[in-house]
Amino acid sequence: MKLEAEFNRIEEVAAAFNTHYEVFKYMKGLTQDLGMNAFLFMTLPTVDIVEIGAAKILTNWPAEMVDCYDAQTFMIDSPVIRRMLSSTSPFNYDVEGINTDRGEGKKVAVIDLFKRYGMEKGAYFPVHDAGGGRGAMSISGSRNFNMVEMAKLLFIATLIYDRLSHLTLSERHKPIEFSRSELDCLRLTAGGRKSSEIAKLLQVSENAVNNHIGSVIKKLGCTTRTQAVVSALRLNVIRV
């Protein structure tokens, strides 16, 4: 996947996405091809949203990083969020430079967190949906983007965010109910457990575990366990 090629075909590609997992796979590939480590799609937080976990739509940020970010309330005085709320222009960031005005303790902690996961640099792209809701895409890693790359990525971000908004709206009209056993099996699967291990932990047969996971996969409209875990994490069905 090359950025120029993706820029030329993104309208067709974005229109063909039918699930969040398809978007996830695409963004993971694009991020890797750009030599970066992580991507994030989020809604810009209102006053009642103070956690990245509540604002995220789709991301491959490690779950433990999200938990650490929220536990230390980094969003409340985030200079990145403040800049996006006051401007619609995309921008490169350096985690050290953009956090200069934070209190010394918080500044050191947030810089350490992003560097720990190889996300010390990158760019944010403010976008919006058809209803006027504001959001953003970020791609993070060890470098910044030039102006041509920024322009192409902004176009890609705009089309993908629009498609994600349609998919999310559609999903919200389809409430999904899970049994306690299904959620337990899904949560343990997300934690890297195999069916045999889950069976021992829950004191049920391995066949029962596979049936529960199979039911979850079907309810989420997925085809594999990995897809189901990604979808469940995005919808906040489970947390790991």
From TrEMBL:
Pfam families: Autoind_bind, GerE
InterPro entries in the cross-refs: Sig_transdc_resp-reg_C-effctor, TF_LuxR_autoind-bd_dom, TF_LuxR_autoind-bd_dom_sf, Tscrpt_reg_LuxR_C, WH-like_DNA-bd_sf
HTH luxR-type domain: residues covered: 171-236
Record key words, sorted: DNA-binding, Plasmid, Transcription, Transcription regulation
GO biological process: regulation of DNA-templated transcription
Domain of life: Bacteria
GO molecular function: DNA binding
UniProt source species: Rhizobium acidisoli
Protein name: LuxR family transcriptional regulator
